[in-house]
Amino acid sequence: MRIGFTKMHGTGNDYIYVNTLEYPVAHPEALAAVWSKPHTGIGSDGLVLIGPSEKGDFNMRIFNADGSEAMMCGNASRCIGKYLYEYGLTDKEDIALETHSGIKMLHLHINSKKEVKSVTVDMGIPQHIHKVNLGKDFAFREAIAVSMGNPHLVLFTDNIDAVDLQSVGPLLEHHPLFPDRVNVEFAQMQTDGSIRMKVWERGSGITQACGTGACATSVAAAFTQRCTGKTIIHMDGGTLTVEWNRTNGHVFMNGPATKVFDGVIDTDI
Fold this sequence. Notes:
- The chain contains four helices and 18 strands.
- The chain is α+β, with helices and mostly antiparallel strands.
- The chain has an 18-stranded mixed β-sheet that branches.
- The longest helix is centred in the N-terminal third of the chain and has 13 residues, at about 75-85.
- The chain is globular and about 50 Å long.
């Protein structure tokens, strides 16, 4: 079977996008694991399926590089907004995207060339915000759990460059406090009020960026009174702007979406 796909990234968080209206996918878990491999596959952080929705305008399903299905991805949702508009699947500038974490509203920022330059996503209301005691084996200044439709653990540090993410990331992802595993963000406040962040994603490992992680980090910083209002989050792959609106409780994330290339791949899975 031959399947067309588009490689896209949001601040370096790269996924393979397939329009299932045109190319039905039978075994996305297996395909995500095979296609995501950097040397023998396409190479990505996972697979994103775009499909029809009875509750919104379109549906998103996302599979991590290990084949596990994720609840939500902020970077992928921005890329889907760009994909839908620029490939002519919709002419709407406000799109209701159905995810496993509910409907997310996308607002497209379009230039005079009819290109989507950035997308603002209403990420909804953060849940289950609380401080976490990780035990004596983890000497971080402060750890905050936040749910952005998927689970996050935000750890504040004075020296983010000293964090051995490859070693400590898997330990925290599989910490006994999180039986379903957790996404892990390390954050360092900057003198200008912005935040430097690094991420270990559940099911994918080290990634260049994480949209829901940026939102969780902004919420955790506000929760611990490190910042208020809008927050600029700097990640290895780029920068996002996050605002926690205290009037309605919603978190809004704005950032770019970039097409890398289109391709076709044969598969017998």
